[in-house]
Structure formats: structure tokens, C-alpha cells
Amino acid sequence: MENNLKLMRSGRVIKTYYSKRNTVQLLQYRHGPEEKFIILKKHRTLQGAEAEYNTLVHLNRVGLAVPAPLGREGKNLYLQYLKGELLVDVLENNLVPRPAWTRALALWYYTLHSKTASGGGTVMLKADNNLRNFLFRDGVVYGLDFEEIGGGDPARDLGQVCAYILANRPAFTAARLAEASAVTRQYQLLNLEVPLERIEKELILELRQMAQRRKELSETIKSFIDSRQNKHLL
Ligand SMILES: Nc1ncnc2c1ncn2[C@@H]1O[C@H](COP(=O)(O)OP(=O)(O)OP(=O)(O)O)[C@@H](O)[C@H]1O
Ligand SMILES: [Mg+2]
Q1: Which atom of ligand 1 is nearest to 43's Cα?
Q2: What is the pLDDT of residue 121?
Q3: What is the CATH number of the domain that holds 71?
Q4: What is the DSSP letter of 72?
Q5: What residues flank ligand 1, with Cβ below 6 Å?
Q6: Mutual orientation of helices 154-167 and 98-115 as an angle, nearest 10°?
Q7: From CA 84, how far away is CA 130, in angstroms rounded?
Q8: pTM over 0.90
Q9: For a substitution probing ligand 1, which of 8, 21, 24, 134 has the most ligand atoms within 8 Å of its CB?
Q10: Given the CA of residue 128, which atom of ligand 1 is nearest to it?
Q11: Which residues of the chain have pLDDT under 50?
Q12: One domain, residues 51 and 123
């Protein structure tokens, strides 16, 4: 481990990613004849780095598609570099046919929830469900960013991710609605215990919070919710 850390520490920064809270970089280093790539995530707090490292160890062990944690040194986390396209870009630029990514995303959530169920309907939740926290590659969705993970009702993750899908540019189109519905349907095919009504309740809660945060979307969000009074949203 110490040797690996020394090598990883020697990596040079070749890219810095968009991140609101931390510093996330792609590093390259030489290991014998090979060029290796890894991610360095510099957390703001030691607690944050430890929590994310431990969560990733656990999720790797249960077989969820997440980056392998390669090491931690104080607030610095070294992670497996995953190639792929961020889901924000997949949606914005139509990079992948809808059934491929919606099915893969639903399967990712189902795997997280089913492998971490702890009785009473409580599971481990992704919690930070924005589409910059997911990569798509070769038919598989990978989850990133496990700082905010917590326990609760799986409907919350589904409702929240549907809100992010609807708000992805171009926002609130018929195509976005079809995508959010497809993720929900695909998830329900795998897990019938999460009814549509609960998912829609969480979706409305998240949309209302989004309307507060994103003033430019607040009118669109209000009319979207109003136009569906007494009807299914998804
Ligand atoms: N293992 C990885 N492989 C490839 N890219 C990654 C990996 N981890 C992070 N990234 C890239 O870095 C970005 C930021 O990562 P992450 O969300 O973990 O950081 P963050 O500091 O929590 O960001 P934010 O505060 O904006 O949510 C991701 O959107 C992705 O583009
Ligand atoms: Mg993030």
C-alpha cells in the first residue's frame, strides 16, 4: 500500500474536473513500462474523505459499479479512473439510445438498494443524484461521488434522479419526461415494492427545492407540476 501511495503521489495532473465542493484531478504516472491513470479527489475535510473511502470499499465489495478506492492519505482519496461519458452529456447530446442508458441506470439503483437493504424498507441511498455523478460506458452506468450517502426510502433516490433528468438541458421536454418514466418503469420491473405514488411524491419535493435553487427554471417547474394535478407525473 505504501509503495502504491508513493507511486500515485508521483502522478502529474493532466486534467482538473468540474467540482463544486472538492478538487478532482486526473493523474498520470509511470509504473514500469506502463502509463497509469488515476483520479485524485482532494476533500475539504478528513471526515469527508474517510466516509467516502469506507463507502466505496463497502460498495465495491457488494459488486456495485463504482470506482475502486485505491488509497487514502489524509484528505486525499485515490480512485480508479473510469472512462466514459457523464450522464449529463449523454442526455444533452443524445449520445446513447434511450433504452440503453435508462435500463442501465435503473439497474444501478436497484443494485445499490437491494444489496444494502437493512429491513423495514430502508436502504442505502445515493442521495446526491445529479447526473454529473454518473458515467456511462459500454452499456453500464457507474456511480460517482459518495460523500452524501445515507439511509432511507428508495423512492427518494428515484424521485430525485427523475427531477434531474427532467431539468437536464433542454429541460422539461416530452423526451425528458419519457426518459424519467423509462427509468422508473425499468426500476419497478426489478423492484415492485416501490410504488409510483411514492416516487412521484419525492419527485415533486425535489422539483420544489430545485425551483428555489434555480430561479430560471422556477416558472417551468411550477407549470409542470400544475399541469399534472390529479394525474400521474411520470
Ligand atoms: N473515478 C472517476 N473516473 C472518472 N471521472 C471521475 C471519477 N471521479 C470523479 N470524476 C469526474 O470528476 C467530477 C467530480 O467528481 P465528484 O462528483 O466525485 O466530486 P465532487 O467534489 O463531489 O463534485 P461536486 O461537489 O460538484 O458534486 C465528476 O463529475 C467526473 O467528471
Ligand atoms: Mg459530484
Answers
A1: 21
A2: 86
A3: 3.30.200.20
A4: E
A5: 17, 19-22, 24, 39, 41, 67, 79-82, 86, 132-133, 144-145, 147
A6: 150
A7: 16
A8: yes
A9: 24
A10: 27
A11: none
A12: no
